[in-house]
Structure formats: structure tokens, C-alpha cells
Write a structure and sequence with these properties.
The chain is α+β, with helices and mostly antiparallel strands. The protein has a single domain, classed as Nucleoside diphosphate kinase-like domain (Alpha-Beta Plaits). A four-stranded antiparallel beta sheet has the order 2-3-1-4. The radius of gyration is 15 Å and the shape is globular. The N and C termini lie close together (10 Å). Bound molecules: adenosine-5'-triphosphate and magnesium ion.
């Protein structure tokens, strides 16, 4: 089992897409093990997107992420990092495949509604940053019918 970090960006919250987006993770069978709504400050935004500091889009990205509340989730499942990135789709909504979140709801490269960790290492770093109190541990009973026992080896 992996735990990944996602958040619905200000555009997704303002467009009323939090429920739609979370539903895609729930119906896939993934387990929600943390959730919080907050207004991101410059310090948290800078730490989260540190890898992009110095790039041309960085100032606009920080302005965007701090402009209005976001809703963050910790999501658990087998291969949760990769599965979540697949659900999310390519960075630019104009290029993202239909059926993905960005492909179905987006037309922008910057305002792309959702973030998802891009590796297990990123997920661990981001979860420590956004959920320093930790995430929940509880049995999801439907996992027994979501995964074949061999998926869990
Ligand atoms: N060329 C660009 N112009 C404007 N904004 C951009 C551009 N490239 C990236 N961004 C913004 O910065 C974010 C981080 O870029 P990154 O390359 O990590 O894409 P991503 O991994 O698909 O998205 P995220 O990290 O938010 O999940 C993008 O999601 C987007 O909001
Ligand atoms: Mg990224």
C-alpha cells in the first residue's frame, strides 16, 4: 500500500469541482486517509513547489496557489501514486486525455484543478509537509473485494 498526496487547487474549489474530483478517487476504490481545507500561505506554497523555483511560471504559480482556498487529501491504495497521476492526466488540460480529471474539466496549462505527487519520494515529502500530524490508519472493508489477494503481496 502507498499513500499519496493530492490537493484540489483554487480553480477546482472555485468551480465547485471538489466533490466531482474526490468521487473519481473514491469510485476507483482508493481510500481517503486525510482531508483538510485551507488557504495556503507563501511559505507552504514555496516549500511545496520548491523544485520549480526560478522557472518562468513560478511567480504566477505561487500567486495562483495562494489566491483562494484549496482542499487537500491523503489517498491510499496499491500503487496509489501512479494510479492517482493516471486519474489526474497530463499537466495541460488541452492535451490531457478524455476520461482524466484534467482532460474532462480543463483547458489550461496552469489552472489545472489538481495536484498529485509524482513519485513515492515526493509523496512522502509532501505528506510530511501538509499532514505533519500524520494520516489515518483504518481498515477499508471494501478492500477485500477491490483487490485480489495477489495484488497485496
Ligand atoms: N508552462 C507552464 N505555464 C504555466 N503554469 C505551469 C506551467 N508548467 C507548470 N505549470 C503549473 O505548475 C504546476 C506544477 O508543474 P509540474 O511540472 O509539476 O506539473 P504536474 O506535476 O502535472 O502538476 P502538479 O505538480 O501541480 O501536480 C502545474 O500543475 C501547473 O499548475
Ligand atoms: Mg508536479
Amino acid at each position: 500500500m502507498e499513500t499519496t498526496f493530492i490537493f484540489v487547487k483554487p480553480d477546482g474549489v472555485q468551480r465547485g469541482l471538489v466533490g466531482e474530483i474526490l468521487n473519481r478517487f473514491e469510485r476507483k476504490g482508493l481510500q481517503v486517509v486525510g482531508a483538510k481545507m485551507l488557504r495556503v500561505d507563501e511559505d507552504l506554497a514555496g516549500k511545496h513547489y520548491a523544485e520549480h523555483e526560478g522557472k518562468p511560471f513560478y511567480p504566477g504559480l505561487i500567486k495562483f496557489i495562494t489566491s483562494s482556498p484549496i482542499m487537500a487529501f491523503a489517498i491510499r491504495g496499491v500503487d496509489a501514486v501512479t494510479v492517482s497521476r493516471t486519474l489526474i492526466g497530463a499537466t495541460n488540460g488541452r492535451k490531457a486525455d478524455p476520461g482524466t480529471i484534467r482532460g474532462d474539466f480543463g483547458l489550461s496549462g496552469g489552472f489545472n484543478m489538481i495536484h498529485g505527487s509524482d513519485s513515492i519520494e515526493s509523496a512522502n515529502r509532501e505528506l510530511a509537509l501538509w499532514f505533519p500530524e500524520g494520516t489515518l490508519e483504518y481498515d477499508k472493508s471494501s478492500n477485500l473485494w477491490t483487490y485480489d489477494p495477489s495484488d497485496l503481496d
